[in-house]
Amino acid sequence: MTEKPKTSKRRADQYDDPDYNYRDYWQGREYENASEELAIARLLKGKKFKHAVDIGGGFGRLSLLLEDYAKKVTLAEPSAKQLKLASDYLKDHHNIEQMKLQADDLRFADDSIDLILMVRVMHHLPDPSSEFKELARILSPDGFLILELANYTHFRNRIKHSLKLKPFPKEPVSIRTNLKRSDDVAFVNHNPRTVIKQLSHEGLKVVKTLSVSNLRSPRLKAMLPVALMLRGEKILQPRLAWFYFGPSVFLLVKKAK
């Protein structure tokens, strides 16, 4: 039996910072949170699963939603601090298991998971090839992966690049501006077309795309109630998906056959 080559572990402890509380981050981001829940519910409508895994799910923000679709839910999170927050946040949800895992080293059997969720993780992965290989390994033949990525090719950047007559880069673009926390940890936006090719290289194909958080704007959030913004979001998510309008893109992915 050939021994699996040893690789250096990607750093995944940035959310263990004692001065940073990820639950506090979501204060004032009700629109963004609801937009992501709306996208997930749309992609999973009418589907039921045996085992859902929320990879890099933090304190379990979206794990709660997966309870509506799966008999068993596992929060797979590399941060000890986030898991401690999750213990409190999920204390009344006893069928949500919590495991200290990271996306490039998931300790699940081959073909064993029929629903994988990975949201707000890609922005820390300039090269997600190891993670995609691991996702493809554990995903069951008829299972689904919901993958979210921070989208560099969003509408405002389209205008900027058009004015400068510059094509979009194929490689991830660093948008890191805050060097006070974990300045050796990547923070990038991706080109969705590149990500789709990377998924295909691991035998994964995109079957549906949504453009998410399309109305994300401090000005709009100050002017409009969240409920009204979400009514617009519901309409726009599928209609703007074809050219990756929003700052966030959700991909529904299956194994290619």
What profile does the largest beta sheet have? 7 strands, mixed
Which structural class is indicated by helix and strand composition? alpha/beta
Estimated radius of gyration: 18 Å
Mean pLDDT figure: 92
Beta fraction of the residues?
Answer: 15-25%
Query: What is the overall shape?
Result: globular
Order of helices and strands: HHEHEHEEHEHEEHEHHE
What is the overall number of helices? Answer: 9
What is the helical fraction, as a range of percent? 25-40%
What is the end-to-end distance? 27 Å
Unreliable stretches covering 5 or more consecutive residues: 1-8
- Strand order across the largest sheet: 3-2-1-4-5-9-8
Description of the molecule:
- With 257 residues, this protein is an alpha/beta fold.
- The protein is built from nine helices and nine strands.
- It has helices at residues 22-25, 30-44, 63-66, 80-89, 129-138, 155-163, 192-201, 218-223, 226-239; strands spanning 49-55, 70-76, 96-99, 113-118, 139-150, 173-174, 188-189, 204-212, 248-255.
- The strands form two sheets. It has a seven-stranded mixed sheet, sandwiched between helices.
- Helix 2 (30-44) packs across helix 9 (226-239).
